Amino acid sequence: MRASNVTVRRRLFAALIVGTAIFLALVVRLAYVQIWLGPELSDKAEDSWRRDIPVTAKRGEILDRNGAQLAYNISSPTVMAIPAQIQDPQATAAKLAAALDTSQERIYKQLTTRASSAYIKPAGRKITQEKAREIRDMKLPGIVVTEDNKRYYPFGSLAAHVLGFTGIDNQGLTGIELKYNRTLTGIGGSISYLADAAGKSMPGSTDEYKKPLDGLNLQLTIDSNIQAIMERELDQAMLKYQPNHVIAIAMDPNNGEILAMGSRPGYEPGNYKAYPVENYNRNLPIWMTYEPGSTFKIITLAAALEEKKVSLTEGFFDPGAIEVAGARLRCWKRGGHGSETFLQVVENSCNPGFVVMGQRLGKEKLFEYIYNFGFGKKTGIDLGGEENGIMFKPSRVGPVELATTSFGQGVSVTPIQQITAVSAAVNGGKLFKPHVAKAWYNPDNGALVEEMKPELVRQVISEATSKQVRETLESVVANGTGRNAFIDGYRVGGKTGTAQKVVNGRYSASEHIVSFIGFAPADDPKVVVYAAVDNPQGIQFGGLVAAPLVKGIMEDTLRYMKVPPRKDQMDRKYVYGDTKIVEVPNLVGMSITDIYETMNMNFQLAKSGTGGTVISQVPKAGTRVEQGSTIRIYLSDASPPESGKPQAQ
């Protein structure tokens, strides 16, 4: 009996020890959970209860090089649903459908989705302030109107293909909007609250607001004023020539900055769905590939001068064609140009002369320069959709391919390659990577975040050769095929191009792409402008169609840029049909009789006032105008103001 009691006591004591140990373990575990894991578990519990309503970050603005806003955001409310808080989905859907003028069935599906929140889309996205007020006034449980942003393009179609556009969720879809989408988008914020398992807001819970981080503002190299000048000329060319399309690019040759870029047909980024898809999904200045024609001769010229394979004063005879490996390659001028120098070969855009330049260079050397000028691969411009162009493989280049390449036939290039290469030919020989992004700025304080520096790819030719190229191309505009790009008072250089289009694998006899590339001032280029017109109706020569187009862009651009006129301009060679530029004489102080008896008049006279003496005139003396322009003279019997003695001409 006594032993049995001892055994019981031992067992009770052991049970006490085990129970105490278990109790202590539970205490330790509870302390660990409460003290050590408590904050983490509390956060996890709160996360499981917390519901977020997203707040969209404001998309960064896009500015031109002078700070003008090209794309920015306007407040645009959006309707959201919190499905767990909706008491009567059917009735709610009916009221929203009536207010938003959309399908009740579609809204009902969105209201009953298994999600913490859902957009009412598309009808509830980016609605007007008046519509937002109407929906708020309904006080529908589970329906909230949150602030959203809508992209706005204040200049309509201006620079549309450069800017691109955004989708319903403010995501970039094309152009700069797509290329720099991540940096422009920013980081979204939210408004969060605590909800129970049924989605009801917990009593006493407070909303938490996480401020969105807005996207950075992007400044472009584009100048909206030059862009407007360019697009005005593109519109006029479309009306005048009715082409398939027309493109133009303006570049600063000294750093690769794109000053303007455009094409027609165009579109409005804010309303892109109203246009055919081909209007907005192709940026032709970087996407279009075609045979360049005679503008490509600038590359052959630069290579031949750099390698000293030709002298501009050397004589050449053009009979109208040249035989190469059994192929007869014709000059554009029937019967040829006869005896000429190689300078005149360039002025006249004489194909046989350029064939000889290519032959003297040889296949390896010519194609070495072609590749060094950037042809055959993408320039790397910061826009999507750029094409490579097509070059002959060196192994497939025979005598005929070498000859045709020398004058721009049989190869395929893009407009951006053309202007980039020619900029290198005239800027001292430096090939720069073209770009449209200039700098990033903080949207809150305007501080500079990052600036894009010019990127030099390589030195292609020497400064001395580049100077020769500039002077030769200036002579083309003054004396050769580029005369229609001549701008009085400015030294302009350039080259025409006329290329047959390839249709169904054959050269078309009736369809051409005509082009012109020009730069000014020829002694110190500040701007290079390239334009191409695809299949203009009627006239199909680069000198008659594209040269005046470039002149119109360049003339106003030079004045806008405040580039001073040059006094040492090369005299223009006039041919039959050209209108001469003459200087307005000083008529102040002269009588009408004196004017008609002593002046060799190149002008029409328009008279205002009464009297026998000219006291004022418009335009003023010394102004250069087209021959035959009208001078308005103001007559009086009073003495004219002191303005110098009258000069007879």
TrEMBL record:
Which keywords does this chain's UniProt record carry? Membrane, Transmembrane, Transmembrane helix
Instruction: Work out whether the entry's keyword set contains Aminoacyl-tRNA synthetase.
Output: no
- Membrane-spanning regions, if any? 12-32
Give one Pfam hit by family name.
PBP_dimer
The keyword Transmembrane helix is annotated on this UniProt entry: yes
**Subcellular location(s) per record:** Membrane
- The primary site where this protein sits is membrane
Domain spans labelled PASTA: 578-637
Signal peptide stretch: none
Query: What highest taxon heads this organism's lineage?
Result: Bacteria
To which protein family does this belong?
Answer: Belongs to the transpeptidase family.
Q: What is this protein called?
A: Stage V sporulation protein D
User: What organism is recorded for this protein?
Assistant: Paenibacillus oleatilyticus
